[in-house]
Design goal:
heterodimer; A: 109 residues; mainly beta; 0% helix; B: 114 residues; Immunoglobulin-like; seven-stranded mixed beta sheet
Amino acid sequence: GQQVQQSPASLVLQEGENAELQCNFSSTATQLQWFYQSPGGSLVSLLSNPSGTKHTGRLTSTTVTKERRSSLHISSSQTTDSGTYLCAIPPSNTNKVVFGTGTRLQVLP
Amino acid sequence: ETAVFQTPNYHVTQVGNEVSFNCKQTLGHDTMYWYKQDSKKLLKIMFSYNNKQLIVNETVPRRFSPQSSDKAHLNLRIKSVEPEDSAVYLCASSLYWASQNTLYFGAGTRLSVL
């Protein structure tokens, strides 16, 4: 079945630095979604990016479908960006969603 | 903007008790899900419902059962909780039963089993 690996497992930055998060998956995917989970537990969708590059605010996601990888770039990080970032992929022809184990980001003031 | 509502936020109970978690979505979506998030933050799907029909039932213990009155509601009942059931349970919905649809999540219910 679909395997989703994320790296790094954890990342500590100073406020203002940029973050680069990686997501690698084992099987073809027609959809890929990045989520943010706050320290309090709420899970929110950041963006969906099955291929190409998408921007929203300080976030940029680039997915290279053929290479089965996606990245999430956070520019000018802020302390409020601290939390866990999850990559999620629904395998083709199903509505199951496989989540990666996430990257824990800590942004220090 | 919250559109998937879960209650309660937290629940503490003892081994053997029955618990029930509620979930409601106001997005008009056709499909709803329950996920379990373990201590390592790994999310695993437990159930999904499409128009009141169970579509996916992963190999979860039989003490777990989903309950749906209509497509906007999907509750989760645990008949006799075990210590390993301690986790965060997340409810989600999507527009259709299709791999391209975006998932919308509730805030989660954190269960602690003593």
